[in-house]
Amino acid sequence: MHTIDITVEVCGMAGDGTIAAGGMLNEAMSRGGFSVLGFDSYPAEIRGFGRCVTRSRFGTEEILALIEVTDVLISLDDEQSRSRVSFLTPEAAVFFDSKPAVYIDEAKSLAAAVKPGTMLFGMPLTDLAVAAAGTPRGRNLTALGGFAAVFGVPRELFHRVIKRKFQPKGEKVVDANVKSFDAGFDYALKVFSDRITAVFAASLEIADEEKVMLSGNQAIGKAALDADLRLYFGYPITPATPIMEYLAKHLPPKGGRVMQMEDEISSIGAVLGSYYAGTRAMTATSGPGFALMTELITHGVMAEIPAVILDAQRGGPSTGLPTKTEQSDLHAAVFGGPGDSSRIVVAPSDVAECYHFTVKSFQWAEKYQTPVIVLTDFFLDNRVENHPMPEADEEDRSNGNIFPDSSQKGAYKRYEATESGISPRSLPGMEGFIFSATGLEHLETGTPDYSPTTHMNMSAKRHRKIQAALVDLPRPVESSDGGELNVGVIGWGSTVGSVREAVRSARRKGLSVGALKISSLFPYHSEVIREFMGRCKHILIPELNYEGQLANLIGHLFSHEVKRLNKVTGTPIPPSEILAEIEAILEADTK
Asked: What is the C-alpha to C-alpha distance for residues 568 and 288, in angstroms, rounded to an integer?
């Protein structure tokens, strides 16, 4: 099979159908048997203006990250697409509207901005769409038709995707969109017949129907449903809002309820109240909303009430960059709030883990009677990957609560200082198991008590159970041949994909490099991390934050100063930058 690794961008103005075109492109290429990773970028402002870009990488080898260069640019707006020219490879292909509805000065056209050597495919997208379907609205599909013809993607793949997407709107809409696509496909076959490359054709292999395109937010929403979520409380905030939208559609038919609250404080309060009563509940937010939740999160820590909180990180601080990605809430997730308020913090690194970690978070919250924070980020929430539809088994979905034994009836100690730190938890209405729940420090019975001994003992108890959770939380995963390494690269969250690709490239060059993925950020598996670090001459930790927050958290486990690669550009770290840093470290060693 011919090896394929091609990045395609669709760029246009809000309202051009850019995001829809990118979605259909991803679906079609997935059906063609390719590994797909796609990501949409759009403005924070209201619909109607601003640049929209979809970036998709297709490969015959598993795609783990996006790269910084683009092989094909499909332009729906010259002015917006000119900003993407600097990312084009020297031999890139560019599809553009050669007869746009609005006159564009030649000097400001996309064709004038590209470098010599770029393959230009000018198509009268608007005219073709109007002639085929009577409306210019399908010009995004006309452009996809041109791309498919030139690069050897059978039109049938797109037909199936178009029909599935527009079927709910009726056959007339389906027919119009199919005709718009075919108009571009047929035009390109005829006009560019001597420039057809058909690079995808040799590697096409119709994929299993079970493989689906899924975003991180969709995976989280489905996971909550599969975990038998009963109540969702939330307040809209980018990039977490799609989770609430997904659940608003799918949770009520399963007997659950979605409540849009007046703010994030009331959202976490309602989650704690629901879980206090024994009902699975969750909320999702981003940095500004998470900041508002911290007081009640620590109340959940003190009162030992379960909660599931999804923090979809974005650029900060404050309102920051709502539609840009960052990994800068780690300190807040682990330490945010007054006092020593240990809680469980996990970070998925791909769409599949978004699903599985969310499912398990309900069980972890119940078993360890604590808030569980699932840390994602804009890139991970918004990106799509093609996977078989994830499913949870009965064990992962099972109730994690530890209830008191009947022998404790009438002499129940809700906060009994057990060896594990986990105290059996009764629910309201369980006869003989009444207790006080308060945010004040308390005795084993729940009665407030401020004595030094009580506070010391209860603090130790709460921390003890969190450390005990390591037995259930995901262990670090190493990618290497084992043994001594010159450079060990540690990644977390969405940056793991770039770390793995960079290390894969370094190893193919014969370099002694390995990677370690950390998913449980608190508590963390210090023995595993320390053992990996002990086999490495240098440790590099790339992160999408300015301070190196994971490096701050675990750096003390290494015998030397860890090396940091910190980026706050609002975009993912490409594998090439991590590889360059690895090579720079090794080169410095030789001097």
From this structure: 17
| Structural domains of the chain sorted by starting position, each given as residue range(s) with its CATH number in brackets | 5-207 (3.40.920.10), 214-397 (3.40.50.970), 402-474 (no CATH), 477-589 (3.40.50.920)
Give residue 451's Cα distance to chain centre: 45
Q: Which amino acid is at 411?
A: A
SS3 (DSSP) at 315: strand
* Long-range contacts, stretch 102-109, CB < 8 angstroms, 24+ apart: 104/78, 104/79, 108/78, 108/79, 108/82, 109/78
pLDDT score of 198: 87
End-to-end CA gap in the chain: 42
Cut 0.70: pTM above it:
yes
DSSP per position, 213-233: EEEHHHHHHHHHHHTT--EEE
- Is the backbone peptide bond immediately before 317 cis, with ω within 30 degrees of 0? yes
Question: What is the strand order of the sheet 119-123 is part of?
Answer: 119-123, 88-97, 70-75, 5-13, 51-59, 35-41, 384-388, 211-215
Per-residue tokens: 370: 């604590």
| Beta strand pairing call for 5-13 and 51-59 | antiparallel
Tokens of 560: 């030397």
Q: Are strands 35-41 and 51-59 parallel, antiparallel or unpaired?
A: antiparallel
- Model confidence over 346-404: pLDDT tens digits? 999 999 999 999 999 999 999 999 999 999 999 999 999 999 999 999 999 999 999 99
- β-pair type (231-234, 257-260): parallel
Write b or e for each residue in 237-257: b if 16 or more Cβ atoms lie within 10 A of its Cβ, otherwise e.
bbbbbbbbebbbeebeeeebe
Rounded to 10°, the helix 139-151/171-191 angle is 40
Q: Which helix (H) or strand (E) holds 171?
A: helix 171-191
Residue 366: closest CA among 472, 275, 273, 299: 275
Q: Is 471 exposed, middle or buried (0-12, 13-18, 19+ CB in 10 A)?
A: exposed
Can you read off the two tokens belonging to residue 258? 């979605």
